[in-house]
Amino acid sequence: MRSFPTSSIRLLLITVATTVILSTPALAQTPVPVCCMATAISDGSYLYIQGGFTSVATLRTAVPQFFALDLLVETWSTSTPPWTWPPNVGGVTPPASNGHSMALSNDRGNLFIWDPFQPAAWWTYNIGARYWSSYSIPRNVTKQSGIRNGVDMNTGNVFIPGGADNGTQMIMNSPGSSEVPLTPMPTTLLPTPVVQASFVWSTYRNSFLHYGGQSIAGNIANPNLIEFIPTTGWQALATTGPSPGDVSAYSGTKMIVFGGAGLNGVTNADIHILDLPTREWTLGMSANATQARRNMACATSGDSFVAWGGESTLAIKDVTPIVYDMRNNQWTSQFRRNTTLPMPAEPSTPISTKVESRQY
């Protein structure tokens, strides 16, 4: 098991769908390249991205942008990704921020942002009604970058491990309730509070998986994969094979790990896959070293894994996504949801249509 867990962004592909209305894709509009953004994936259909750091001259500046990558478009080139910009018809948009996290509600109707650096730590975007709202959490929240939130897809409850009392307590909230009960983090499994760990819901195991990151105090790696079952609590989860560092997920039965950085700050370009039924890691094809990154947005849709943004050891990455064909174990410039179908004769472009009732 690698001793240097990474800090790349990770997301879980869920399999239930619902109907929402999004804006017409704005093909001429390009997002500002960022790292350290909040991201969420909706059933392999949209990768939502909010906030993050961008570079202005020699300085880093937080931005408030909110957009999505339409992963329902069957085929597109990485040079012309199908960006879309969800509208805001009322309310106040979240401020410019970074190091925060975002999760999708179990009914797929809302996005929840946890931002411990803002007075209103909790932000909600109603996807159908298309507006933002916020409220404060009356607790001693942990003001550290890389505190993650996740949604129990059975109950809809939101959990924030390490979210209070300098990483020693986990916050739980039922959306719509003012109650935010705390429970201690498992000190026997996690001897020291950590940040930059992954915390994702596994549809296969019906639990949260918590992996990687580093200690809040000091520069100590966390190599542990542990599991939180909301009805019973925390437990260790043993695996075999060479473990990488940070967790993303594919189809509920596999977790995909790409990039990230060790405690020495050097970014990686390798990709690993954990098969949950066997709990065995395998190594995929590494990306070109120029594509090494951490603190990125990533998602899976069909047979494709997509990463966007993030930062290398020296700079924030550009606006071009990179795509990994998981079925054929190769990096490619063409996103294809179904890689068993023939490749189009020419690279396709995003479909410019209004999304009136998109299954997602």
UniProtKB/TrEMBL annotation:
Signal peptide: 1-28
Domain of life where this protein originates: Eukaryota
Name of the protein described by the UniProt record: Galactose oxidase
Keywords of the record: Kelch repeat, Repeat, Signal
Signal listed as a keyword: yes
Gene3D superfamilies: Kelch-type beta propeller (2.120.10.80)
Signal listed as a keyword: yes
Positions of the UniProt region annotated as Disordered: 337-360
